[in-house]
Amino acid sequence: MCKEMAFQQRRVVVTGMGAITPLGTGLEESWQALIAGRSGVSHLTKFDATGYDCTIAAEVKGFNAKDYLPEKLLKRLDPFIIFGLVASKLAIEDSCLEITHNNAVRTGVSTGCGLGGLSTIEQYRDVLVQRGPSRISPFFIPMAIPNMASGQISIMFGAKGPNTVLCTACAAGSHAVGEAFKTIQRGAADVMFCGGTESVITPLALSGFAALKALSTRNDEPEKASRPFDQARDGFVIGEGSGMLIIEELEHARKRGARIYAEIIGYGLTADAYHMTAPPDDGEGAARCLQMAIDDAGIAREEVDYINAHGTSTFLGDIGETRAIKSVFGDHAKKLLVSSTKSMTGHLLGGAGGIEAVFCVKTILEGIVPPTINLDNPDPECDLNYVPNKAVKADINIAVSNSFGFGGTNAVLVFKKFKQEI
After folding, report:
1. Quick one: pLDDT at residue 8?
2. Active-site pick, 54, 113, 175, 310
3. Residue 37 to residue 28: CA distance in whole angstroms
4. Does domain 2-408 sit in CATH 3.40.47.10?
5. Which one of 252, 347, 360, 382 is the catalytic residue?
6. What's the number of CA atoms in the CB half-sphere (13 Å) around residue 62?
7. Helix/strand/coil for 365
8. DSSP 93
9. Residue 194 DSSP SS3
10. pTM for the whole thing?
11. pLDDT tens digits for 140-185?
12. Can 310 be counted among the known catalytic residues?
């Protein structure tokens, strides 16, 4: 019955992609750095981090927003909105999609972020304390609220369909893609902008994550700080940026002659119901999420070729994810290619799922699996093939993207090489 229902559902394909990452501006620049195994982590430049436990981050570098957006508009936007807007602009240009009066109401937006406009909140808190309430900008609230990335994307491109934001911590970007997929699948839209965006490399965020002992303090070797599954890992590296996709109902894409990159075929979402910041030792919630996504895709677990792991470089997280993969895939787990691109991009928090979805599609398209860099001495508890240090060529038919967030929220996406037949 499940397979029959899946047969009747509308097929959803990826037709456009855009990225702003610590590895580069635009998808191709980011991808080339990724498969070359280059790190986007360096010493902090956004503010003076003297005295902080952590003084490193994966900042977006060499990006000039004025090349993409009007200066007047930029003054009214938090950086997380800017990243999302520009990534969306790149994605829609890549898709060659034209939004018109005829299709605007069937075109929607779904974005994910973790903390919204935190830099704007910090800035205007200082203004309030130092200069008083009369000096708060009328643009403060619209700059800070998490849904404004989705709002500004819809305004800029005239997308009048479903419009939402997912604020599910580090799973937000993947939830946004998954919910957009389901929105099209059930017939509520034909086209969706979807992905994640985040920019919270700020004094408060850095201090907060450091207080949780979640961040790497390998300050003397920034490029080697993010080391998922390695025995010497000591926490994640905070990153920023955005990954956005244009996804469409298959027939809609065919009718306009769109280039189709891949198909989205499965989505899972679960809760650990366990702890605010730590996963259960056995990765039970993540395992159920993986199984849900596989079931939703209507595939056998043996059909999965590659997993883009959540792989944040935290002690408990990497072990829990490894156990989850092994519990779901059994003997097939040893045959899987698994890598964490966060070893190079750092952790984009709510933006991570968007850029990692884009990387999964590129992996399928190019037949190249990105590496997990800095994996020099694997943790004995982490004993899968994590594609250590060097990209490998492989025919990838089905790729999975894992995202897990604070509060025990989990999201898994399944992508497939596009084939005309059902």
Report:
1. 67
2. 310
3. 14
4. yes
5. 347
6. 9
7. helix
8. H
9. strand
10. 0.96
11. 999 999 999 999 999 999 999 999 999 999 999 999 999 999 999 9
12. yes
